[in-house]
Amino acid sequence: MILTSLIILLISIVAGVFGSLLGLGGGIIVIPMLTLLLGVNIKYAIGASIVSVIATSSGAAVTYVRDKITNLRIGMFLEIATTTGALTGAFIAGLISSKYLYIIFGLLLLYSAFTMLKKRNEELPEGVVSQPIAKKLKLEGSYYDKVLKKEIKYNVTGVNKGFGMMYIAGVISGLLGIGSGIFKVMAMDLFMRLPMKVSTATSNFMIGVTAAASAGVYLVRGNIDPKIAGPVALGVLIGATLGTKIMTNMKSTTIRKIFIPVLAYVSIEMLLKGLGV
Question: Which domain holds residue 39?
Answer without folding.
Answer: 2-275
